[in-house]
Amino acid sequence: MDQHNATLASGLVSSTYIQQGADALCTRRKLIKTLLSQRSLPKHGWDEDTVELFIKDAAYMDSNNFLNSVGVGEREARVASRLVAKRHFGLAHGIGRSGDVAAEQPKAAGSSLLAKMTNILVQDALKVAGMLDVGAVTVLPLATGMALTLTLLALKAKRPQARYVLWPRIDQKTCLKAIVSANLEAVPVPCLLEGDELRTDMPLLRSEIERLSPDKIVCIVTTTSCFAPRGADSLVEVAKLCRESGIGHIVNNAYGVQSAALCSLVTSAWRKGRVDAVVQSTDKNFMVPVGGAVVAAGIQDTSLVNAVNKAYPGRASMTPLLDVLITLLQWGVSGWRNVLEQREAVYRYAHVQLEAFAATINERVLTTPNNPISIGLTLANLRQVGPLSVPADQTDRNSQDSSNLQRGTSSTPASQSSRPTHVATVTEHSSAPLSCEAAELVGTSARDLSKGYEAGARNRAWLGIASEGMVPTVMGTPVTT
Ligand SMILES: Cc1ncc(COP(=O)(O)O)c(C=O)c1O
Question: What is the dihedral of CA 373, 378, 383, 387, to 10 degrees?
């Protein structure tokens, strides 16, 4: 009810009461007005009802929700189930047009507005997290791997003669498949073992560029968020190398937004060198259901983000964007900061507790200063005394522990529990040959891919723990000791 209607209503109910009610309505409307005029993340999170009011208002602006109007011959935005319509607040037109996913959808002013607002708020959220000079942001209804593929395709279209992607190796299959699915040839560049940590081998990257010739290389795909003992790639050095050699640079920042250190690394990279796009997951960073990714670029060059929008074929679902929009409106700047602080605190806590725990079993936490998300632990003294399987009840207890942690009700995180080391996990990633499946994808033998790791990594095993999102996740299969 607007002020005009409130005045009319005061003819029915005493005007003092109506005015009180109208003031209450006005408080909510003011929040929406501030959002639309300032176009930035609200300082403080909104309550659920105001978020719903805003979204419903927008939905009523889409043609499928017009009163007294039936789209004859319409084949779009017809929703058979009321439950489905409710689940989507009546938003059914999706976003974009066939030529550009960021374009306005003529039949859906409300959806178009919400999509634009999502991109604006995400850009702000990246800034709050420490990623500065962000020039363009697009939230895609694709998870990280598919968003990487689309970004690679958009970059490849700008460099039609090129087909190689140099890829400082990370043992995560999606990253590799993202390259292969773009019909490009991945050239894995093994990392260097520096102390405990696996780092980008810059001399090898340089020699690979020379060997393959810069004009045949689409880009280098670097990674920030990864499992210890691999550290974040040397983004600034790679960005400078890409600028020097005239080749593209895409950063896989899948779950790096909640790390101030990784956000500042991205900022330095695009300030000092070439970064075409940085891709991050919406679920891993903004804690929404899987299904979205953010493709961002620095103010220095936003052309690839625009090209990605144009490369997207057809319209797109707005559901993953809506999830992010709702979450950011409910957090506001203060809530988002709180999440970021908690993630850092959980990491520090896990580090201290793991160090203490490691000392009790004559092991140690690996020194991986370039990995602010995941922690590695030596398992030099681990002896297998039984089959590598876990009794069913123990698996249950483990998952119980982690779900308690997630709800914040557990006083003792899994790693602190008095039970034996049922969370110990032998992870071979980064030191071991790439899995046979992954090796098949790049058409190289697993043995070749492991070159460079074996010397330093032989006979070592690690426990990997990642503080992804707000909650530490224990990786891999539990083993009994
Ligand atoms: C470094 C890295 N890149 C990409 C992905 C794939 O993300 P998505 O499942 O969102 O495609 C992951 C998943 O954990 C990851 O760790």
Answer: 20
Pocket test for ligand 1, best of 281, 285, 374, 429 (most atoms within 8 A of CB): 281
Distance of CA 280 from the midpoint of ligand 1 (Å): 9
pLDDT tier, 242 (very low <50, low <70, confident <90, very high otherwise):
very high
Residue 459 pLDDT: 33
Ligand 1 lining (C-beta closer than 6 Å): 143-145, 172, 174-175, 223, 225-226, 252, 254, 281
Contact, 94 vs 111, CB < 8 A?
Answer: yes
Place of tokens 């790096």: 256
Bridge partners, 297 (sequence order): 136
Burial, 108: exposed, middle or buried (Cβ in 10 Å; 0-12, 13-18, 19+)? buried
Is the separation of the CB atoms in 122 and 324 below 8 Å? yes
Q: Does domain 3-87 have CATH number 1.10.10.2160?
A: yes
The predicted pLDDT at position 472 comes to 33
Segment 28-45 shows an average pLDDT of: 97
Find the 174 Cα to ligand 1 centroid distance in Å.
Answer: 6
- Would you place residue 466 in the very low, low, confident or very high pLDDT band (cuts 50, 70, 90)? low
Distance 16 CA to ligand 1 centre (A): 57
Using most ligand atoms within 8 A of CB, pick from 174, 251, 278 the residue to mutate for ligand 1: 174
Closest CA to 142 of 330, 347, 311: 311
> DSSP class of residue 367?
-
| Region of poorest pLDDT, from 201-205, 384-388, 454-458 | 454-458
Length of the chain measured in residues: 481
Angle at 372 between CA 371 and CA 374, to 5 degrees: 70
CATH number of 332-474: 3.90.1150
Q: How many whole angstroms from 283 Cα to the centroid of ligand 1?
A: 10
Q: State yes or no: pLDDT of 239 exceeds 60.
A: yes
Percentage of the chain surpassing pLDDT 70? 80
Classify the C-alpha dihedral 368-369-375-381 as positive or negative. Answer: positive
Residue with tokens 């058409």: 443
Give me ligand 1 centre to Cα 73, in Å.
Answer: 41
Cβ-in-10-Å burial (0-12, 13-18, 19+) of 204 comes to middle
CATH pick for 109-331 out of 1.20.1260.10, 1.10.275.10, 3.40.640.10, 3.30.470.20: 3.40.640.10
Domain spans, the chain? 3-87, 109-331, 332-474
